[in-house]
Amino acid sequence: MLFRGSIGRACVRPVFAPTTAIRGFRSVYHVESPIIDDSKLENQILGRAYNKFVPTHGFTKQSVDLAIADLQLRPENLGGLFGIGLQVSDVVNELIMYHLKHTRASLSKYHDEAGKLATEGAKVRFYMQKRLLDNVPIIKYYHQALGRMILPTNLGTFLTELHNLSDDITYYSGDKSNDFAWYSKRFALSGAFVQSELFMLGDTTPDYSATISFMNDRVSDIDTLGYAYNSMEEWAIFNGISLVNLVRSQLARG
User: Fold this and answer.
1) What is the DSSP string of 68-109?
2) pLDDT below 70 — which residues of the chain?
3) Is residue 141 domain-resident?
4) Confidence (pLDDT) at 209
5) Integer-rounded Cα radius of gyration of the chain
6) Of 72, 177, 226, 237, which has fewest CB within 10 angstroms of its CB?
7) Where is the COQ9 C-terminal domain (predicted)?
């Protein structure tokens, strides 16, 4: 069972329906727009830092400073570039958010391949696997990112991006509902994804095969059992408590 406790309620219908089924609802929430504007200088700096320096220096201001130097820019002229100045904590948060948005945007590369899969559930697993494997180049530093994401001042922003990922995955996989089941599936997948990321931190199997198996099991739990939440209040309680406690407890174990 993915989540236990009083806030989980079993659904009577499957969470992942065959993609050939006729759906009575169409999502009015999903917006197709550029996730990252690569024409902006700040994103060019973050992109260079992320691709070239984070794999060796982690999610640090040093990675951003090295990217600025690599692009032959003058740091003293970039004080307000990110809209928040160049304080260490703010720049690191921007770098972490770039990772989340960049990897979410990368899912669009796989639409043709995913289109060959027969069911919504298979597509969800496919996109989840692709997204998890995008963590590989920076996995040894990912605990830094997760630790920052759950800070009270950062939590709302990063939860929004996490749920944007879940929304994209369900939408790309064929779900177009906009009833309350849309919310249920969205944050159930968010929980499964975070659990899988935490599992991945300690995975030493070739090609992270154990992580992929773990993720498939979590998605199967959602598909088999299903979860509904009775109100937006329960949804907010889940967001504010469950994911934070999950990440904190796992990071505390090292």
Assistant:
1) HHHTT--GGG-TTTTSS-S-HHHHHHHHHHHHHHHHHHHGGG
2) 1-33, 77, 79-89, 177-181, 224-244, 246, 250, 252-254
3) yes
4) 98
5) 19
6) 72
7) 157-225
CB 139 within 8 Å of CB 198? no
- State the sign of the Cα–Cα–Cα–Cα dihedral 15, 17, 21, 27: positive
For residue 39, tell me if it sits in a domain: no
Q: Which residues pair with 18 in a beta bridge?
A: 119
Q: Which residue has the tokens 């968010």?
A: 190
Are residues 52 and 190 in contact, defined by beta-carbon separation less than 8 angstroms? Answer: no
Phi, psi at 22, each rounded to 5°:
-85, 125
Q: What is d(CA 59, CA 160) in angstroms, rounded to the nearest whole number? A: 20
Within a domain: residue 73? Answer: no
Domain encompassing residue 239 = 88-253
The pLDDT, as a whole number, for residue 30 is 54
Tell me the H-state helices in 134-231: 142-149, 152-172, 180-201, 209-225
Q: Has residue 58 been placed in a domain?
A: no
Reduced to 3 DSSP states, what percent helix, strand and coil does the chain have, rounded to the nearest 5? 65, 0, 30
pTM of the model as a whole: 0.80
**Residue-level length of the chain:** 254
User: What 3-state class would DSSP assign to 119?
Assistant: strand
How far apart are alpha carbons 49 and 45 in whole angstroms? Answer: 6
Q: How many domains does the chain have?
A: 1
CA–CA separation, 120 and 249 (whole Å)? 32
Q: What is the model's pLDDT at position 20?
A: 38
